[in-house]
Specification:
The protein is an alpha+beta fold. Helix content is 35%, strand content 30%.
Amino acid sequence: MVIDAGVGTQDNLKLIRGEGFHYVTVSRTRPTEAPTEDLVVIKSEDDLTVKAKRLDREGADASSEVILYCESSARARKEASMKTRWQQRFEEGLAAIVF
């Protein structure tokens, strides 16, 4: 099954696993620690690089899952831009309060 992240709640995934189905979904959470070693470049062109690493995890209910952790240079640039824009607005708001 291919599942949208909005449908991939823990309860829904538990139900799907309970019925014996395999699935692919976008995770609703981010890992607490991003892997930094053994990332494999899976795409590289011009100003875009995508790296990935397979993470095998055992669940609390004796189930196992495979996570494909991905890093994208384009997404990193987008997130840095969003952070900079948020920080600028925050600082402008503070300046407006102070002066």
